[in-house]
Amino acid sequence: MIASVNCLILGEASKNNFNVVIGEVYTNDDKIDVTFDQFTISNFKELLFRREKVKKAVQDSDSMDLYKVKLSLLSLKDKIYTMDEIEDLSTMMESMLEFKEYFNNGDKKPKPRCLHIFIVPTIVAPLLEKALHLTILKRNWNELSQNHHMTEVNIRDVEKYQKQTLGQFYRKALPYDTKVDKMNLAMFGQMLEKAPMINNNKTLLDLIENDIGETNYYNVVAMVGRSGAGKTAIIVDLAKQHFIVYCQRDSVQALKDNDIRLKQRAGERVELEFLTRLLFLQLLFKIKPNLTPEQFFCEQMNGGAKTIENLVGTLRKYHVTTIRDMLSYVQRYLTKHIYDQRQGLVIALDKAHIAAKYILAEKLISPSILSENLKNQIEVLSSTLNHMNNLQEKYQRSFFTPLCATLSDMHATLVVLGTSLSLSDADQVSSAVDKKTNFQKIINFPKLNEQDVDNLLKYAIDLSECVIPPNKRRKLTGWPHFSSSVIGKLNDSDMHTKQDLFISAVDLAIDQVKNDLKKIVQNLLADKALNTARLLGHMVLAYKLYNGKISFAHISEADFVNNALCNLSKDSDDVHLIMDEPLVIEVVEEELKSINVDPEFLVYLDQFN
Predict the structure, then answer these.
(1) How confident is the model at residue 580 (pLDDT cuts 50, 70, 90)?
(2) Using an 8 Å Cβ cutoff, are 76 and 115 in contact?
(3) Bigger pLDDT: 603 or 539?
(4) How confident is the model at residue 124 (pLDDT cuts 50, 70, 90)?
(5) How far is the first Cα of the chain from the last one, in angstroms, to the nearest whole number?
(6) Rounded to whole angstroms, what are the CA distances from 190 to 8, 63, 236, 479, 483?
(7) How would DSSP label each residue in 379-423?
(8) Span 100-117, pLDDT tens digits
(9) Side-chain-facing half-sphere of 270: CA atoms under 13 Å
(10) Contact 347, 299 (CB under 8 A)
(11) Which of 306, 323, 447, 536 gives 567 a disulfide partner, CB atoms 3.0 to 4.6 angstroms apart?
(12) Domains plus CATH for the chain?
């Protein structure tokens, strides 16, 4: 025996150290004998990799760094070192150097009862024993709880700010955002308690409450609606009752292998991100045991982002198995804690269209192709390639697919939403998630009629001495945010009457809504492939000729109009749909004229004006 060294894999407890003996001759994996004088650190890594516990922690013998230390085993008791700590205490052992440069049986003899070498995996992070997970988590909570300070909103400060802002129009405290000086205009539509329904007349709240206490079959919900429909407002409103985790990628065989790797890596990253948010929730429970869902939601918007970022940095060094074990533990703890209070745990994936359209776009494969048995996968995949040997567009997927697949398995209700989220995106959610989940689509959002517009404004603000002219009230019908925009435009002044100030706010709100609609219509008309001009012209004529009663050749056209522009409701005849949003029609008509879509059509249209 030339040297005897004690080794420890980074992330494991000192009791898991093991001894390695180096003799005068070493036989490498190529069956070549190497004398101690020629025995390198690279040879030593090869020797280490023959140990089963090392194989579980690293990918291969080249996927580890070794650090020489001299730490008493007694001082290591119950301590788990981090990479930052050992870098200050150690010397990295270079693979090309001989082992004798660091240890020998003479002047560099390893000191007894000491740890001599830290093994640091470089490709696969350290795989921890399950018994240590709770210790690691508690250590992270203790460190972070000392640095994180909750930002709480005092309702008295909200009232004070809103009284100063609204002046004589102040009636009661209106929905506020994550901070005192921000009113949540998106929430005003919720004041009339109009909730969107799925086909069986259940609301999102019903679905979440059905999931309380569930262990296997969780709901996955896709909310598809244009900007202003009230998607985010629903999430904010739910956060008053339930805990919302708010979250704002060759050859045929190579194509398949690449798809598997990308989805696996994407899924692992999603698991890490979700774990950090659950840990953040548990951290807040530690700081404030009586934490409310609304406080948790606000805290994610305020100081929570930095703490979550720090958690990601701390946990990303751990092996994926360790992350999953931690996730399982935290999920069990939180679901029991929350369910005992009859509250739900919800994942709200907002702006989901970004993942669908911009992250790993067209890089992944539809799960429907890969659902075939292994023997048929290559054959089926080959049939989906075009003449350029690329995957046909209808089978192309993005990061959105593994994102939804992973989150649907997180023991929580998953709600996917986004301004540009389409019905085809919603269908991709359905194909991505586990078949044991209950997939639902919410596409029918409530709209306001003239009486609703009146009720909402009078409920929210003091409109004594004020009257809204019928023609202006008519323009505010439709999506709730048309009316709520009025409140954001109020500007108290002693220089004008209350009625004048109110009408000024109404006019400003109408102008803002028109500008927003104008941008939407321009974007729709810019896509020539959709033949949007013909469809929009059809809408205008139906409004002029049949009081908004309209029918479509294809259901996809109705879905397009309903989600891109205005809210369609069923007519009493169950055949036609009713389109009753004059401001939308006004903007569409103006834009069709501006691009001179069809001179004959425009002449015909002018006869109705």
Answers:
(1) confident
(2) yes
(3) 539
(4) very low
(5) 102
(6) 58, 55, 10, 11, 12
(7) HHHHHTB-TTSSB-GGGEE-THHHHHHHHTTSSSEEEEE-TT--H
(8) 999 988 888 999 999 999
(9) 23
(10) no
(11) 447
(12) 3-125 (3.10.20.90), 447-609 (no CATH)
Cα–Cα dist 145/303, whole Å:
12
Identify any residues that bridge with 584 across adjacent strands, giving them in sequence order.
none
HEC readout, 456-480: HHHHHCCCCCCCCCHHHHHHCCECH
Which residues are within 8 A (CB) of 604 and not within 5 positions of it... i.e. 6 or more apart? none
User: Chain centroid to CA 424: how far?
Assistant: 19
262 pLDDT exceeds 70? no
CA-wise closest residue to 502 among 546, 543, 458: 458
3-state DSSP percent of the chain in helix, strand and coil, to 5: 50, 15, 35
Give the confidence band of 68 by pLDDT, cuts at 50, 70, 90.
very high
Q: Which amino acid is at 426?
A: A
Q: How confident is the model at residue 536 (pLDDT cuts 50, 70, 90)?
A: confident
Q: Is residue 318 packed enough to be buried (19+ CB in 10 Å), middle (13-18) or exposed (0-12)?
A: buried
Which sign does the torsion angle of CA 189, 193, 194, 197 carry? Answer: positive
Residue 190 tokens read as 């919720």
| CB-neighbour burial class of residue 189 (10 A; exposed 0-12, middle 13-18, buried 19+) | buried
Question: For residues 437 and 404, what is the distance between their CA atoms, to the nearest angstrom?
Answer: 12
Does position 56 have pLDDT exceeding 70, yes or no?
yes
519, two tokens:
């941008």
CA gap 230, 246 in Å, rounded: 16
Angle at 87 between CA 81 and CA 93, to 5 degrees: 110
With 50 as the cut, is the pLDDT of residue 374 above it? no
- Partnered with residue 449 across adjacent β-strands are none
Is there a contact between 578 and 552 (Cβ–Cβ < 8 Å)?
A: no
Say whether pLDDT at 38 is over 90. Answer: yes
Q: Is 563 left (phi over 0), alpha (psi -120 to 50) or beta?
A: alpha
Q: How many CB atoms lie within 10 A of CB 46?
A: 18
